[in-house]
TrEMBL record:
Keywords: ATP-binding, Kinase, Membrane, Nucleotide-binding, Transferase, Transmembrane, Transmembrane helix. Residues 155-223 form the 6-hydroxymethylpterin diphosphokinase MptE-like domain. This is DUF115 domain-containing protein. GO terms for molecular function: ATP binding; kinase activity; thiamine diphosphokinase activity. GO terms for biological process: thiamine diphosphate biosynthetic process. Gene3D superfamilies: Thiamin pyrophosphokinase, catalytic domain. The keyword Transmembrane helix applies.
Length: 371
């Protein structure tokens, strides 16, 4: 039997902020993605209740596989009606194949079994091939409509932060982004790039004691702490100017610039760095593959294709930087290292009889000279 208090949210990225190891997370997340899975694992959950399908089989979404491989029990596909009956703080009990809510029977527990899942997971690779043609067509169809995105039809806001001639690090909540941040810490320390965090990626940077200069996004997942810590906030609004995130910023007594254009906030961040004259743009956690976009519910990648078409000569992936970048060691560090090595050697010599006699002779000679 499993028993615990409910934490519930339609957005998994918001849920994990409130989650404790003894809670039971209730989500409505179809095709759980890799980032969501790892964020749940970080909270040390033992079981999750998903009222949507954790894995539809349309494409090889990685989330459910990651959770199952790490021993997390998944109760799956309970339906939105069940989700609407559960409230934050409710007591949930799971007894074998039955679920009880506040002591009353709720529904049958449908478990996602690892062996059955693996069969459909392997099968999904063939399904993904069928999706590829539609994905390509959607990408180019919308690229024609959104080409103004890179042709200067959308104005970028003026910034206080100086970007021209500097390296810019753009951090997004994507695959392995936390690992990549750690891998390029030496680059950040030495080069001191302008750091642009896309929404909730700012929180991951603060966990590594790295302060973002600019936060850009719709502001739906970034913490208040990050918003108060950064130097500038840029709210990404819809092309018509509607910016739900701006209300949140204003309610906190903060100021923000607004950029109204199509595309993802990651695309806007990359384009902003380019338009402001960045010498080099380093991306962390970027979404670039078909799987990345399908996991986010997108059927194409038009804006991403257009942005990379424009800024390609200045854009590098953080993984390449971590492999190619070698931190220069200063003379100060070398001196400290040599001194640290000499101290134990001198200590040993001082207690060795021949060297004690040698130091005694030097002492006598000094006395004669001083007389």
């Amino acid at each position: 039997m499993v028993k615990g208090k409910v934490k519930i949210d339609r957005k998994t990225k918001n849920l994990v902020k409130r989650l404790r190891p003894d809670d039971i997370p209730v989500i409505l997340h179809e095709d759980i993605d890799e980032v969501a899975a790892y964020s749940l694992l970080e909270k040390k959950v033992k079981i999750i209740v998903n009222c949507a399908k954790s894995f539809t089989g349309r494409f090889p979404a990685l989330g459910a596989r990651i959770l199952l491989s790490n021993g997390v029990t998944i109760i799956d596909d309970l339906g939105e009606d069940i989700f609407n009956q559960i409230k934050e703080g409710d007591l949930l009990e799971i007894k074998e194949d039955k679920i009880y809510l506040n002591g009353k029977y709720l529904c049958v527990a449908k478990y996602l079994k690892k062996d059955e899942f693996e069969y459909f997971y392997q099968k999904s690779f063939k399904e993904m091939e069928n999706l590829l043609e539609d994905f390509i067509e959607n990408t180019f169809e919308y690229a024609k409509k959104e080409k103004g995105f890179i042709l200067g039809q959308f104005e970028m806001p003026e910034l206080k932060t100086k970007i021209a001639g500097r390296h810019v690090l753009v951090v997004t909540r994507g695959s392995s982004f936390k690992k990549d941040i750690k891998a390029i810490k030496s680059y950040i320390t030495e080069v001191k790039p302008v750091i642009i965090a896309v929404d909730g990626a700012a929180d991951a940077l603060l966990q590594e004691k790295i302060k973002p200069h600019i936060i850009i996004g719709d502001m739906d997942s970034v913490s208040e702490e990050s918003l108060f810590m950064c130097d500038e906030i840029v709210v990404h609004s819809y092309p018509n100017g509607y910016a739900p995130g701006l209300k949140r910023i204003e309610s906190l007594g903060l100021q923000a610039k607004v950029v109204a254009c199509p595309g993802t906030s990651e695309d806007v961040a990359l384009l902003l760095a380019y338009e402001k004259g960045a010498e080099l743009i380093v991306s962390v956690g970027s979404h670039s593959s078909m799987l990345d976009f399908l996991e986010k519910g997108r059927k194409g990648m038009s804006s991403t294709f257009l942005v990379r078409l424009k800024i390609g000569s200045k854009l590098v992936d953080a993984r390449g930087v971590s492999k190619l970048y070698t931190e220069r060691v200063s003379l100060k560090y070398i001196g400290v290292l040599i001194l640290s090595a000499l101290i134990p050697i001198l200590a040993i010599l001082m207690v060795t009889p021949p060297f004690q006699y040698f130091f005694y002779l030097i002492q006598l000679k000094l006395r004669v000279i001083l007389r």
